[in-house]
Amino acid sequence: MKLITTVGTSIFSNSDVPYNDYKISFTESDWNEIKKEPIIETVTGWALREGANASAEIASIVKIQKDLKQPIEIHLICTETIPSRLAAECIQGFFEKDDTIKIVSIQVIKDLQVTDKKTFERGLANLFQTITTIAKGDWKGIAFNITGGYKAVIPHLTVLGQIYRCSIYYVFDEGGDNPSYELLKMPVLPIHFDWVEVEPLIDYLKDGFKKDENIKKLLFLFEKKYIKEKQNSYEINKTKEGNSQKEIEINTGELSVYNTIYQRLLINNLITNELDITPLGNWIQQNKDARPAGKTFLGDTMELFVESYFNQPKKHPLIKDYMTQKKYDVKGKFKIDLQSKSITLGSGAIQIGDIDIFLKNTITQNDVLCELKSLSTLSDYKKEINTKDDYFFQLKARSLKYLQDHPTVSKVEILLLIYEFQIKNAGKKIQEKIEMYDNTKNVLEHLKTIEQDNDLKEKVIFNIYGLQKIQSFDQYGAKRSLYEMKDDANIFSKITI
């Protein structure tokens, strides 16, 4: 079990060892000089004589280990101050010879101090990043000890622990000359982070949002008072001296859309007025991989929508020839020879994945294996190319398995449907976006080579279509758009690579 423990300075207060001279911000050069002084040895020696009640952090760690009844690894979280780092060193010295409690890291969190709000917010973002790195996705093996450190950090770590259903510990004492620390374990509450609500916002948290010309123009015009709001729209402020329609070429419709995006990000505390990403926004960016591979948090619901859409008689002209068929369950395993790019069905440890939707092309009469992937997550597949996790091998295995199970079928079509939730009049077409991002384009070019694969040549047709779901920009916009079947809410396009 990994115990993330925030560190304060109670060990100095309890020991009566002066530390006011060290109340300075943390720098490596200062630290390298100060750690040579006897304060660490002096306070650690006192703590060892005093025992577990030497500090709130030490007392809490000892009590938590007894509560967990197993060896624990401690990650000490320090503020960016010298006293916090000194205290962590003393705590590490106290447990140096303990067999059940091991201090495995001391983390000094950059900018985690209370000199000003902006610096503190950067510190929080760095704190979340550090904890995420420590957890490595295994939150069941994480517990929080929020006894020491800045009290301003406690609510943030409490919420984080509740979201991931981690044990959260805190000790308190009644004060006095002989502290008696009592352990409090917070119950896990039935709450979770609703990723669906932030789904429409995630892709606007990229650094590119701050550089977006529409957003920069919007902020510039408001700052200079060149435009003003009027009945949910915008107009040129003709009272502004030296201002003219020609000087400020704007599309008020597009500007309204981008202002809506900007306001939604502000309301949800994901960006600041200056377009800097907040700690919450950073945390969402860091943890967006919680989404299923290649999909959004609405991926399963999107599958239901697409299946229903293909099943209706009146469809978009581009996909009017496709109809849904009875679902085909793929079962089996396979192994890969990375050098030859060949696979062997029926052996190995890799499970053949499910086909999202099974269709029929009513013109060619080909059976169609339809796969849904989110545009925003396609680039994630770039790092897996030519590895055992390469999505190419999954498509190949599913195609070969289907042909093996249906000996009368000579050719199948793979239809890759790339989707995204789009605000009306905001952003580019999917084809344009693919051309902008090399990783996404490279992934699609790689997948397209399945048509020339030695085992599938002339047995597979690979087609790519785009689907932009038009949504209102509110917290339920994406979810609500999945029930909309009208053509103006579903923009299909043929993608060429």
Give a brief outline of the structure:
By secondary structure, the protein is of the alpha/beta class. The chain is 36% helix and 20% strand. α3 packs across α5 and α6 runs parallel beside α12 (279-287).
Q: Give a short account of the largest sheet.
A: 6 strands, mixed
* Quaternary organization: single chain
What does the overall shape look like? elongated
Helix content class: 25-40%
Tags for this model:
497 residues, 18 helices, six-stranded mixed beta sheet, alpha/beta
Tell me what the structure shows.
The structure is a single chain. With 497 residues, the protein is an alpha/beta fold. It is built from 18 helices and 17 strands. The strands form 4 sheets. It has a 6-stranded mixed β-sheet, sandwiched between helices. The radius of gyration is 29 Å and the shape is elongated. The two termini are 48 Å apart. About 2% of the residues have low confidence.
Which secondary structure elements does this structure contain, and how are they paired or packed?
Elements: E1 2-6, H1 10-15, H2 28-34, H3 39-50, H4 56-68, E2 72-78, H5 82-94, E3 101-108, H6 117-135, E4 142-145, H7 154-163, E5 167-172, E6 182-186, H8 195-198, H9 207-211, H10 213-223, E7 227-230, E8 233-236, H11 252-267, H12 279-287, H13 299-311, E9 322-324, E10 333-337, E11 342-345, E12 350-351, E13 357-361, E14 367-374, H14 375-378, H15 391-405, E15 412-423, H16 430-436, H17 438-448, E16 460-471, H18 477-481, E17 490-494
Parallel strand pairs: 1-2, 1-4, 2-3, 4-5, 14-15, 15-16
Antiparallel strand pairs: 5-6, 7-8, 9-13, 10-11, 10-12, 13-14, 16-17
Helix pairs in contact: 3-5, 6-12
